[in-house]
Amino acid sequence: MASESLRCFAQLALIITSFLLQHRSLPSKNSLAILTRGPCNLIGPYFCFTIYQFHMAITMAAGIAIANTIVFRYLVIISNHMITVTHIYLLIFIGYIFPIIVTIIPFTGKWDFVVLRNLTRLDHSTYDLSVYGEYPGFYDAQNIQFLTATVILAIGVYGLPILTSVLTRKVLILIKYHQNMGLLVQTVYPLLAYIPSFTCYLYTQTTGEEILLSEHLILATASSPGLLDPLISFYFVVPYREAILYFLCPNKRPKRIVVAVSVTRSTTL
């Protein structure tokens, strides 16, 4: 399915962009500095800023891909495995359109990293930012492009976990199987990963008060689906788990339970 392909691509891209950036977000009331320490610094701040835009869009794409997986399961169940092509095209459209918008919007505004650095030094005068060199960021956090991208990301951060929670509950009720821990973990994880750090970021952006923990957590929480979501699938999806166990321990095949079912046909003479 296309959503699974998007999910795999987003997870891999998250790991790559996180490695290239290795950034720390330093928000202020009127600006947002992206303090990068990764290999992107070898090319320059404009390259780092471009990678950051893709990183944020891919983060959203990863969240949408997880939600699409749960939505697809729900549609398959309620439609009795008769899901239509329209449903699939709609899931694909939603999976791509919002990340693309988030990527394009920042490129329509003006970039001025010199002004950004001056504002950041004024707002964070006690910080030693010399180790970050010529870092990029948004010098005007009140312009329409920045606010639009923030609103779209906020809808994804808060809306997707709520949607997946509701649909997961419906799926578990419909299949009457309450031990599907993989589905539950995939649902709860975005609630724990995205919402706290993004809420702290919005608080700092609105009030100007610093929350040191959020400055360092955003990179970890945004990129963690690229590492953790495959592990969740490997553990809770039985064929994946058995294949990995057999690869690691080829002499120890997974135990299978074979259930024999006898059917008696009666005829009336």
TrEMBL record:
Q: Where in the cell is it found?
A: Membrane
Q: Tell me which GO cellular component terms the UniProt record holds.
A: membrane
Q: What is this entry's stated membrane topology?
A: Multi-pass membrane protein
Q: Ubl conjugation: present as a keyword of the record?
A: no
Report if keyword Transmembrane helix is assigned. yes
For this UniProt record, give its keywords in alphabetical order, as a comma-separated list. Membrane, Transmembrane, Transmembrane helix
Q: Where are the transmembrane segments?
A: 57-76, 88-109, 144-163, 183-204, 216-238
- Which protein family is named in the record? Belongs to the nematode receptor-like protein srd family.
**What is the protein name for this chain?**
G protein-coupled receptor
* Source organism of the structure: Caenorhabditis angaria
Show the taxonomic lineage. Answer: Eukaryota, Metazoa, Ecdysozoa, Nematoda, Chromadorea
